[in-house]
Amino acid sequence: AHQWRGVIAEYADRLPAHVQRTVVTLAEGGTPLVPLPVLSERIGAEVFAKVEGMNPTGSFKDRGMTTAMSAAADRGAKAVVCASTGNTSAAAAAYATRAGMVCAVLVPDGKIAMGKLSQAIAHGARLLQVDGNFDDCLVAARKLAEAYPVELVNSVNPDRIEGQKTAAFEVVDALGDAPDIHVLPVGNAGNITAYWKGYREYAGLDAGADLPALATRTPAMWGFQAAGAAPIVLGHPVTHPETVATAIRIGNPASWPQAQEARDTSGGLVEAVTDEQILAAHRFLSAENGVFVEPASAAGIAGLLALHEQGRVPAGARIVVTVTGHGLKDPQWALRAADGSDVVPERVGADVVSVAAALGL
Ligand code: F0G
């Protein structure tokens, strides 16, 4: 049986040499592309979820962290820094541990999910809660990396994008060609940039021109931001971004121009979904499709449902939605009912009669 070796080894021919000399990997990538028959039926399309929560630290960030950390290790770096809404810090902490490097993470005060916080701590990162939001953290991290011997591993680091583009390769490898539409949540806009790069290269464009084209086309890229943190939709930065989807609570995305480029050249769109729509999609995905994700990861599903309501999803289209992070990262939302009340487990006696009665048997 073939053991998946991580994205650098699996896609060596399509990645730069400098990430391949000192490989730092946790065997990331190779995530399942799961058909979603209930969602497909509902919107009259053929929908698959690219389940990125199945990566080693539970989000897509691992794909970019293996390449960023390998490049840093190759340059002899001893320390890395990132700003994060949580998942990047979890991935950076884990990969820095594997590389034997010190890892500092700057996170927005009180706004990162418990699962992610505990990962960064478990892997021994120096975790600093910054008195500000993600955008403030990123400014500080960038300045730190400029002035001190610390490498920045946010997605403004091009090595991150190189690793993350492999998710698009995997989609094409699984489907035999690119889908019609690729849907994903947008925060700092690194991932939409990476997917677009990957799809283009697999279609023989840009850096892919020297290699065999493995796709005949590229998809329309559909990005969704949270309504309270939707700078690309509004066309201006948001000073105080707010959303339950803390992973994408970002007001001034670093890869903003690249996201616009992906949207425009792919014939796609970037739109906003409300927190209500995000939480409804989050519930629909777990309760009716069997896939448990964190709230931000449901933004793509929410957007797809919203566009379907507006009659804007082409009938029969083949659609891939990236669900970016695992539900266990931020499990509290599952314990809130649709009406906002807490879900409390029902208590029964420790005998079969009580259990059967409670179940109505
Ligand atoms: N979904 C999840 C679960 C994320 O953690 C992020 C970003 C995104 C979507 C958006 O991806 O930034 O490439 O547009 N999280 C970053 C972090 C910001 O710090 O973990 P993007």
UniProtKB/TrEMBL annotation:
Entry-annotated residues carrying N6-(pyridoxal phosphate)lysine: K61
Domain (Tryptophan synthase beta chain-like PALP): residue spans on this chain: 24-325
EC number: 4.2.3.1
Pathways involved: Amino-acid biosynthesis; L-threonine biosynthesis; L-threonine from L-aspartate: step 5/5
Cofactor: pyridoxal 5'-phosphate
Binding, pyridoxal 5'-phosphate: N87, G187, N188, A189, G190, N191, T324
GO biological process: isoleucine biosynthetic process; L-serine catabolic process; L-threonine catabolic process; threonine biosynthetic process
Cross-link Isoglutamyl lysine isopeptide (Lys-Gln) (interchain with Q-Cter in protein Pup), where in sequence: K143
Record PROSITE patterns: DEHYDRATASE_SER_THR
A GO term, aspect molecular function: L-serine ammonia-lyase activity
Source taxon at top rank: Bacteria
Catalytically driven reaction(s): O-phospho-L-homoserine + H2O = L-threonine + phosphate
Sorted UniProt keywords: Amino-acid biosynthesis, Lyase, Pyridoxal phosphate, Threonine biosynthesis
Gene3D superfamilies, per the entry: 3.40.50.1100
Pfam families: PALP (PF00291)
Function as written in the Swiss-Prot or TrEMBL entry: Catalyzes the gamma-elimination of phosphate from L-phosphohomoserine and the beta-addition of water to produce L-threonine.
Entry's family note: Belongs to the threonine synthase family.
Protein name: Threonine synthase
